[in-house]
Specification:
- The chain is an alpha/beta fold.
- Helix 12 runs parallel beside helix 14 (about 350-355).
- The N and C termini lie far apart (about 55 Å).
- It is globular.
- It is about 35% helix and about 15% strand.
- The structure holds 3-isopropylmalic acid (IPM) and iron/sulfur cluster (SF4).
- Catalyzes the isomerization between 2-isopropylmalate and 3-isopropylmalate, via the formation of 2-isopropylmaleate.
- Pathway: Amino-acid biosynthesis; L-leucine biosynthesis; L-leucine from 3-methyl-2-oxobutanoate: step 2/4.
- It comes from Richelia intracellularis HH01.
Length: about 425
């Protein structure tokens, strides 16, 4: 589009590229078998080269899912405005950045002008206080919030995540929750920057150094929300009330606690019934029965929601000295080349392989299946990704149950939806 208009990329040094959706996670030898994927790769390589854009290509050591590599390289920093042609750009809000997905024509506009028109958003303060129970993760917090406020509850809003639970969370946990702000309908989500943010960023490749670091921290401190800030809305949750959560339907809002029953239409709010009926038809699970015990065919650990090193560590803790159930296909896809390298240095790959999981190359993989990793037919997956829409994982009739990576590991071992807390104790 820029070429057609005779425009240039205005600030190539403020743009980075990687490749994630289309890469195979088994054989990454070029040319890719998938002709379309190969064409896209070549276009990306050529466009980056012609326009002076850094491209983190496969094998560079820096390739991976965009929402994983930018934070890990220190490219994502507090106070930045970050746009990317991908809805889960909200992830970067974990650093106190305003980060959101944009459409293709807006990508053109940003490349040409480094600016974008945006209507002012309302701010909803989402406070979570207290300590999460063992076996309950940031993913459960995200699913719980979306279940409570609805998948459209956040339309017109940015979500500010705060409270003592967020104060204690690692950057990776904060990223998991911000990643799914978009699934709750919010344009973006953020956590105010604090000492955990600075500790994470310090000494990363693109973080400021020497006296620039002190200046940056002073500025980052100044952009935190004031304690007397006014919000358009305010919602509070108790961390202790959040259970390991699993989706039973076709939207990320259709989640329930692991001990709960798949809700009957009559128990739901009127506005949720239509989509529930559609989900009953599609998912073909038994309404009124526990979600626990639902047989699983495929287990996927990865994605920009839960493909980071801490996610793999938790899943490996569950998988250690156990074995994947018969007839279950289970695989682990690190979110980036750096995550993969780190996991291998810690021996996590071997734990997974010994337990019968496949250990793959980085990419989006079966989160979206724009690559060879796809469900077949009516298969049901336990997935650490963020979307369970109809056909999402590559088969037009495939079914997806969203949960934390530790819960996916538990499902792989038991061959059914299982309460990870029983394996961890
Ligand atoms: C393909 C891409 C544009 C899409 C998105 O915007 O999120 C994808 O990453 C997804 O998760 O559905
Ligand atoms: S991992 Fe999934 S959600 Fe994230 S960018 Fe890739 S396809 Fe989208």
């Amino acid at each position: 589009m820029l070429r057609e208009k005779g425009l240039k990329v205005l600030f190539p040094e403020r743009t980075i590229a990687t490749v994630d959706h289309i890469v195979p996670t088994t054989n990454q030898v070029r040319p890719f078998e998938d002709v379309l994927a190969e064409e896209m790769m070549q276009a990306l390589e050529q466009n980056c080269q012609e326009n002076g854009i850094t491209f983190h290509n496969i094998g560079s050591g820096n390739q991976g899912i965009v929402h994983i590599i930018a934070p890990e390289q220190g490219l994502t920093q507090p106070g930045m405005s970050i746009a990317c042609g991908d809805s889960h750009t909200s992830t970067h809000g974990a650093f106190g950045a305003i980060a959101f997905g944009i459409g293709t024509s807006q990508v053109r506009d940003v490349l040409a002008s480094q600016t974008i028109a945006l209507s002012k958003l309302k701010v909803r303060k989402i406070e979570v206080n207290g300590t999460l129970q063992p076996g309950v993760y940031a993913k459960d917090v995200a699913l719980h919030i979306i279940h409570t406020l609805g998948v459209k509850g956040g339309v017109g809003y940015v979500y500010e995540y705060t409270g003592t639970t967020f104060n204690k969370m690692s950057m990776e946990e904060r990223m998991t929750v911000c990643n799914m702000a978009i699934e709750g309908g919010a344009r973006c989500g953020y956590v105010n920057p604090d000492h955990i943010t600075y500790e994470y960023l310090k000494n990363r490749d693109f973080a400021p150094t020497a006296t620039d670091w002190d200046k940056a921290v002073a500025w980052w401190e100044s952009i935190r929300s004031n304690t007397d800030a006014e919000y358009d809305d305010d919602v509070k949750f108790n961390a202790a009330d959040i259970p390991p959560t699993v989706t039973w339907g076709i939207t990320p809002g259709q989640g329930i606690g692991i001990d709960q029953l798949i809700p009957m239409s009559a128990e739901l709010h009127e506005e949720d019934r239509l989509i529930a009926e559609e989900a009953y038809d599609y998912m073909d699970l038994t309404v009124g029965k526990p979600i626990q015990g639902t047989k699983i065919d495929v287990c996927f650990i990865g994605s920009c929601t839960n493909g980071r090193i801490s996610d793999l560590r938790e899943a490996a803790r569950v998988a250690k000295n156990q074995h994947v159930a018969k007839d279950v296909k289970a695989f682990v896809v690190p979110g980036s080349e750096r995550v993969k390298k780190q996991a291998e240095a810690e021996g996590l790959d071997q734990i997974f392989i010994d337990a019968g999981f496949e250990w793959r190359e980085p990419g989006c993989s079966m989160c979206l299946a724009m690559n060879p990793d796809k469900l077949q037919g009516r298969q049901i997956s336990a997935s650490s990704s963020n979307r369970n829409f109809k056909g999402r994982q590559g088969s037009s009739s495939g079914r997806t149950l969203l949960m934390s990576p530790a819960m996916v590991a538990a499902a792989a071992i038991k061959g059914e939806v299982f309460d990870v807390r029983k394996l961890l104790s």
